[in-house]
Amino acid sequence: MESNQREQLKKWWEDLLVFSPRTMGSSGEKDAVNYLVNELNNLGIKSEIQSFTYPGWELVSFTGLHIESSGEELVESYPALGSGSGKVIQGKLVEIGESVIWDMYNWPRLGVFTHHGEIAAYISARLGGKALSQTLIMNNNTKPHLFIGEDTYRLWQEQLKNQKEILVNFELEVIHTPEKEGQNICVRIPGNSDFIDKKTFKIIIGAHYDTMYNTIGAYDNTSGVAVLLGLIQWFQQQRLPFQVEFVFFGAEEFALSGSKAYVEKLTNKELEEIDLMINLDGFGRGEELECWVGADWLEQLICNKLMNSSHFSRWKMKSPPPPGSDHTPFFQKDIPVVMFTVNDQEILHSERDVPHQAMFLNMIKVLEFLKELLSQDLVELKEKQ
Ligand SMILES: [Zn+2]
What is the pTM of this model? Predict the structure, then answer.
């Protein structure tokens, strides 16, 4: 990649971080939308705003989770996005089962019981890592819900096993707004008519621009947004046999509200015309490219490309694609999808998600790999199906 392109990619990434956190409904999120529209304009590209509604949620204040044992102890924890408000004065912890997160993870679920035996709040323990925030949008959920890390949970588990009582206190205030307006930013680049004989090969390529409330999201997903801008800039100068719609999705962290709305607005005919959806979500510090893929022919092509490419020496397929991001509403409509990520669970949805040079190098690699993937081979393979 030429050095001016690298610099541009880095500039987009760093510029967007200034607006963070970009949780939906925040001023940072609105600034990010304006910035993206403006940058697209600077590239000579017209974009279209698609509005949708989503269930709004905003954190007002949180005291932190305190343990009443030998003195007061503050434990690392984050409120769930979608949690209710509440005050817990002397809650007793009881392990009651599992919380199912995104249909992907089953995490230990603790009830915080008052001395009357009522559940005043919930705490879920994230297995395999530190505390983070996650989305829990449940229609009938009104109680506070916190996430802690595995270390804290193991310690508690030991204490509970020894019949030791664990008492906690905290206060959390949030605002729920039933219908908030969010925005997807769409860019359409028509295919080159020289190549088109029967029908145009149609691709949607997306990345979510919003972040969790508690992070600047250098990895999740400012990295993906910058790569998408780089891809648009490159695509504009190509003569490729595709019609591509690039989408900057809003409200991914709000149970995929932006991408769900996008898919819901498509007619059956429009859905049938989509040959492929590519989702870019999170290029972290690691070395392994994960491809969450949903179609055999696509998996075959990506494997071949990766085997013949020097960009990633480590990679793996996950199929069928786990449901944690914006490819899901497309996959549910039988559209072949692939999500690319360099997974970085250690920093996900936390204050630890800050810029790192290794992220930037991965962004360059992914962009280069996508340029190789978006080739005539795609059309030929799909046609054989
Ligand atoms: Zn993400």
Answer: 0.94
